[in-house]
Design goal:
Elements lengths: L1 H7 L16 H7 L4 E3 L8 H4 L4 E5 L5 E4 L2 H7 L4 E8 L9 E8 L4 H22 L11 E3 L15 H10 L8 E4 L3 E12 L2 E10 L1
Parallel strand pairs: 1-2, 3-6
Antiparallel strand pairs: 2-4, 4-5, 7-8, 8-9
Helix pairs in contact: 4-6
Length: 211
Amino acid sequence: MFENLIKSFIDFEWHAICQKTDFNLVNVQKINPSYIFIPHWSYMIPSEIYENYTCIVFHMTDLPYGRGGSPLQNLIVRKHQNTKISALKVEKEIDAGPIYLKRELDLTGTAQAIFERMNPIIEGMIREIILDKIIPQRQEGEITTFKRRTPEEGNLSQLQSIEEIYDYIRMLDAEGYPSAFLETDYFKFEFTKANPIGENELEAYVRIIKK
């Protein structure tokens, strides 16, 4: 995405900040950006940055539905098959800022596949915001808030259907996420690459870890 934007906007100077420790006011002031686009970020953005610069995040829900943490996982456990990516201006209240635009996103497949599917969509949204000089509009509708899910909630032991197990495995199957799991007194079993092969059966890779 970053390389594509550099090639598309040759008159712009682009900078990538990939580490939390580097995303600070001193570094941002050196760049003095017109926009700060934040495609995938799970940390609080310092107020001294968003109060002085236009920060735009991309949230995987049709805001104001689904404000808060773990949007992908919360959508899948609620049986959503698709969603919208909302591009919004960062303000003090989490995911409550005005909306620049929204685009559709299919939620089939693993978390990794969904994140990869998001990339070209977000790239296109960034292009539109810049080229069309979009002015964000305040959010409208009923507010629904998601709670950030914990690694312990990836436990498969209480699930009662193959569909639920498949969803739990796939929604955590991405780099940097704790895998869905089962535990015994002596071992932990972590599951990835789930593949349904019938109404009551699926295959998956398993990693077995001795406690």
